[in-house]
Design a protein that fits this description.
By secondary structure, the chain is α/β, with parallel strands linked by helices. The chain has 8 helices and 8 strands, in the order H-E-E-E-H-E-H-H-E-E-H-E-H-E-H-H. Strand 7, helix 6 and strand 8 form a beta-alpha-beta unit. The radius of gyration is 19 Å and the shape is globular. GO terms for molecular function: hydrolase activity, hydrolyzing O-glycosyl compounds.
Amino acid sequence: MRNLYAALSSFSLQDKIFISTAHSLAVLSSSYPPSAGAFAPSTYMTQILQFLAMTNAPFMVNAYPFFAYKGSPSGVSLQYVLFQTIQTPNAVSIVTDSSTGLVYQNMLDAQVDAVYCALEAMGYANMEVIVSETGWPSAGDPDEAGANIPNAQAYNSNLIKRLATGEGTPAHPSKPFQAYIFALFNEDRKPGPKSERHYGLFNPDGSRVYDFGLDSPLAYTIHSLSSAASGYPYLSTIHTLQFVVLAVFLFSWYMY
């Protein structure tokens, strides 16, 4: 990251393009309740946070409520992780932080606030947090509870609605909430559990896995791109499209 920052600085781009790196939520030694969020001891994390603070870059975290539900389907409310909280006095799908009194209506908000609390404990209360990855698999192995199309559709479409509100988290209501859905495509050759191959909004051929709440022209555009890319035998469709999406993302970030 330091080398990249130096390279950007040589072109006076260090204030337009910010360097950061994504972290697993596992970098936290504690995340519940959110106010108890703390980083596991690490000399690398200390150096990374110092760099991010120096360059005014955000802390990026990959947060997946699916993993919490998969690990304890009987102990975690499905409504809570799918942004489907029912607000009733005795609702088990609402979580209250006993230390702060803050009420959490979905797990992703709680996970992000746990990261904010961990940053505050390290002396970085003003650092922005961005969810660099989040999503839900549309299929999984028999022991992967909740990995199916209805839940994936609910999670991602409700996430989009959550982001569209423009609201921050309960602990940081004025800070913008940014999140990126993982993933654009299913990765049919990826090793590991079946769920790892089914996070995509689209299949490798460009067809939608399910309706996720965005207008149909997007699906048409993706399908058109995949058809055009199929004429290049030295590049797979999925890699070509991932490159296009990455290029557009970087260009947009630079222009911003």
